[in-house]
Amino acid sequence: MAYFVNCNTASLNPIGGNLDKNKAEHLYRRLGFSASVDTINAAIGQPVSSYIDNLIAEAVSMPEIAAPEWANWTGADYPEDSDLRNPILNQQKDDFYNLYITGLINNNLRDRLSFFWSNHFVTEYRNYRAAPLLYRYVDCLQRNSIGNFKTFVSEIGLTDAMLYYLDGVFNNGNNPNENYARELYELFTLGEGNNYTEEDIIETARALTGYVERGEESYTPVTFDPEKHDAESKTIFGQTANFDYDGVIDNLFTQRPNEISWFICKKLYEFFIHPDSDDTSGSNAEEIIQGLAATFRANDFELAPVLSQLFKSEHFFDEEALGVIIKSPFDIYINLINETQFSYDDDTIASVENICRLIGQELFNPPGVEGWYRDRTWINTNFMIGRWLSSELFLQNAWNANPEQFRDFAVSVTPNASTESNPDVVTQAILDKLLPKGIAADEQQNVYDVFRDDALVQYYAAPDGDGSWSLYYPGADVQVYQLLLHIIRQPEFQLK
Description:
Structural class: mainly alpha
Strand order of the largest sheet: 1-2
Largest sheet: 2 strands, antiparallel
Number of domains: 3
């Protein structure tokens, strides 16, 4: 697959006007996990600015996943015998994964963002293996996903999952552990080596001590013990005070606002616009990030104004922004669910989670604190065939469940489907729905031929023998199925 250089030079100025089909499709591919034909049709013709305002307001007000009955269980709520306890823990985790992935399908911007932040404020479930801790971590992600970033940083560091993952539970006043202090600056707020020193990390670790009271098992909540907090004076970023946890966060955002705003806006840019913001030879990415960072600071680190400015901009909707991000594994399958509207159940959701794990994106279990490997690593030789085969399996399962839904999908994307008699028109409508940049010119006729192939069905052979064709004739569902099997193997299918 060709590597797309960032050549987007459009500005942050609002684009204005109304959404057309291409803009609506692009908006939902980036703000959510794509969308159905009905959702796109409802967006077409709507003013860009007010429509995005509504999507952001929806994300801000959306309720979090309701607390399961086990949300605040401690070790005392589980059987002591591990053979009895482990199946309960595993079932709780599986049930919660299903709830969360269903949210990814339905919740557009809010859970697109909670998913993004799970790969920024990283924890690994394998480290603590306790659904109550996972629930409270995800609850924090959802509540803060489009809120105030300073509040987010403050809350996420005290989630039990994070305290266990980055050794906060071992950060005693007389023996500080530097893991969380280091990642707070390096990965969560400032960026590697960006205006902090080793001494800042050491002093910060001292200030973060005391959150060490825990039970014998990791599913017991962590509490603060003032006797194990270092209450002596510390010097961080040149400021000397008796810093505690809240003091560290206040000092960080007071002393390093420029670094924080640049680092976070750069990550948002690379996630929503183009993965290569550092290559400025053909784009104005640096200028865009600087503009977003200024908005971030001016709004006291509120995320909504930054995202509103970005999503309404000429830069976001520029032609050079279309189809230049490689789909993650979750993008592939959730996009297909949303775009085709094929039916799904808990078994489908579980299979999505399992498949994504096998091809490099294990939910809440990235390979390390830096998060999942991304972008071009999604399509390396280890994963590419797996992406094809697992996409085929998804379509095969949908076919086995209900072949008629393939005809329904084609009808939904084809204008005037009830009277359309040209298979090429249907093929092009399906390509337009699934591929943001279309398909290579030398492949287009081949795709048309796949849909026409009379070895599969008798195209242009109506029941009355008049040589006509229609999506409603027997066999058209097979045509659509075979066409989708072909499309998912095209390079362009890997892009969003």
